[in-house]
Write a structure and sequence with these properties.
By secondary structure, the chain is of the alpha/beta class. The chain has a single domain, classed as Beta-carbonic Anhydrase, Chain A. It has helices spanning 3-18, 29-34, 55-58, 78-90, 105-112, 120-134, 141-160, 162-169; strands at residues 43-47, 66-70, 95-101, 174-180, 187-189. It has a five-stranded mixed β-sheet, sandwiched between helices. Helix 5 (105-112) crosses helix 6 (120-134), helix 6 (120-134) packs across helix 7 (141-160) and helix 7 packs across helix 8. The longest helix has 20 residues, at 141-160.
Length: 195
């Protein structure tokens, strides 16, 4: 499947989700038995772990359709990069979507600049460059930081991972940024990154 076809499949599934006309594809016993032999997802999604943003639901997909990497704030660390590389190199997905969302708690916490307890401080440090970059922008600071965070993750994936960088340069993989709106349920590809 080409990246255009994969993106269209995500868009179509999201439209069904918004219209409440879900088809729940690939959720049968036969499908479960079919993918025991191996997985062949058509897309990889690096998404926030927020419980309100389950990729298989918002894109109306089923078992084996999406390779989902979830971490608070959809941030990068070595394990998320390794997971993305696995999806791209070994599962041959043609598209990797970095999916941010409105009202992201991780980004909101990073904007607040409060001193968090435990390892949450490490997460805030990863998001901090996006917050700094968003400070000079007009409009809502948190929503700007969410968008900038997605854009920076897209660029950093290409910079930090030689595997992903090579696949992008060979036109075997497209890495795009997108935002999901909690209220409308709509998925939007960020302009300036794709298309």
């Amino acid at each position: 499947m080409t990246e255009e076809e994969a993106l269209q499949k995500l868009i179509d599934g999201n439209k069904r989700y918004i219209a409440q006309k879900l088809t729940h594809p690939n959720q049968t016993t036969d499908r479960r038995m079919e993918i025991v032999k191996g997985q062949k997802p058509f897309a990889a999604i690096l998404s926030c772990s927020d419980s309100r943003v389950p990729p298989e639901v918002i894109f109306d997909q089923g078992l084996g359709d999406l390779f989902v990497i979830r971490v608070a704030g959809n941030v990068l660390d070595t394990t998320t990069i390794a997971s993305a590389e696995y999806a791209a190199e070994h599962l041959d997905v043609s598209i990797l979507v970095v999916l941010g969302h409105s009202k992201c708690g991780a980004v909101t916490a990073a904007v607040s600049a409060d001193e968090p307890e435990g390892y949450i401080g490490d997460l805030m440090k990863i998001i901090e460059p996006a917050v700094k970059k968003a400070k000079g922008m007009g409009g809502d600071m948190i929503e700007n930081a969410i968008k900038v965070n997605v854009e920076m993750v897209v660029e950093r994936l290409k910079e930090l991972s030689p595997v992903i960088s090579h696949l992008v340069s060979e036109r075997k993989l497209e890495v795009i940024g997108a935002l999901y709106d909690l209220e409308s349920g709509e998925f939007k590809v960020l302009k300036g990154i794709y298309g």
